[in-house]
Specification:
By secondary structure, the protein is of the alpha+beta class. Helix content is 31%, strand content 22%.
């Protein structure tokens, strides 16, 4: 009798587990498309903050390419480039870069660069920095990120692309130097990456060969 009771209990547990898994899968199917669309809209809003819609006439969200990165210590992993064009001519590129040098891990940025090499704007799109300290890199928390607007590799000089504590020109935060240091270096390296590639990034790249 006891053995039968155990079997019945196990069967009920199994059925609950199956039902729970099915409910989770069903909910995910219902919300996955909505979540993806919300993420797309949020990204497009950020892109348009950096490169206003009147500056381009192509589909900046789909006119992209992803390039490998090496030799740039301030950024890690591949770089996705969103390309803005007007009447077919290159206007600006928005580089989605990641730095692993944040105080609490990776910081993901959008760095918009005009064709003349000046920064059109920078936005932090994801981070885990300390609230009240490192999160001042967010545009909604402070104006610090706007300090990159109009900057270039000649303004300031390359050796001054750092926080003031390290001899540079960019402010650090009280009690939080690591976070702004990481962002400054990431923006600097995005400019270094873009410089010699500004024209080739807008060329048509062949599609990779199909897997056999």
């Amino acid at each position: 009798m006891r053995y039968r009771s155990i079997l019945i209990s196990a069967l009920f547990l199994f059925l609950f587990a199956v039902a729970g898994s099915g409910l989770v899968a069903f909910t995910y199917d219902l919300t996955a498309d909505r979540i993806a669309e919300n993420q797309r809209r949020a990204l497009l809003r950020s892109l348009n903050e950096l490169v206003p819609e009147e500056r381009y006439d192509n589909d900046i969200f789909t006119d992209t390419l992803t390039m490998p990165v090496s030799g740039f210590p301030g950024i890690t992993g591949p770089v996705t480039v969103y390309r803005a064009r007007k009447d077919g001519w290159p206007v600006a590129a928005v580089l989605a870069v990641t730095t692993a040098d944040g105080y609490s891990g990776n910081i993901r940025l959008l760095v918009a660069i005009n064709m003349d090499g000046t920064v059109a704007g920078v936005r932090v799109v994801d981070h885990r920095e300390t609230p009240g300290l490192g999160d001042a890199i967010e545009h909604g928390k402070s104006d610090w990120i706007l300090g990159f607007n109009g900057r270039s590799l000649g303004d300031p000089a390359l050796e001054q692309w750092d926080v003031k504590r390290d001899g540079g020109v960019f402010d650090q935060f009280t009690g939080a130097t690591i976070t702004p240091r990481a962002v400054v270096k990431a923006v600097r390296d995005a400019l270094l990456y873009f410089g010699p590639r500004r024209h080739s990034l807008f060329e048509k790249h062949p599609d990779p060969p199909a897997a056999s």
